[in-house]
């Protein structure tokens, strides 16, 4: 992301109601980093085409999980990068979850392979013996076939613990994980992957199911709340996540 791009286009903040005042810290941090930004609504995303979206997925958000699913299921908006964050009830930034991207289920094979190519993740698959890990209770056969078609060896895990065991045996080139696993969320799996030098930079893509019930949204919000720091991230700590996405 060049400085000119940052200047010309805005980052939008979704899931935060303007009247709540919860976006003030986030807005001030972004401004300090030179990013134009504003609180926005879902219905304006397709026409506005923001540089990216900062999305509150905390229990205090305005349906953050629903917004995530809608944005990523709409061909007009699904390519817009989303950075999920946890904002406290008063707007303190408690956590950031920099996953590589999101795909909705059932996976669109052509779109999946197109995005992986855009990210530069398919260039070496046929030259080198590279493994892609799929973490899912169902195995996601269609996804596996699509990724295998461009040269990856597919390895499957059914829980987060099994995924970590497989990664420890041999580093994986990329990972796909259901949002909710039997023993942890994809965001907790991401946190664990980042703890080890050999897997710290492994891209993890999250698979979103077709519909999330209200109970599932609340459960995910609570799960994420358990991962966040008790202390507010500093401006420098938060902006570090944006710089790594440039």
TrEMBL record:
Keywords: Phosphoprotein. InterPro entries: Bact_response_regulator (IPR050595), CheY-like_superfamily (IPR011006). This is Response regulator. The lineage of its organism: Bacteria, Pseudomonadati, Thermodesulfobacteriota, Desulfuromonadia, Geobacterales.
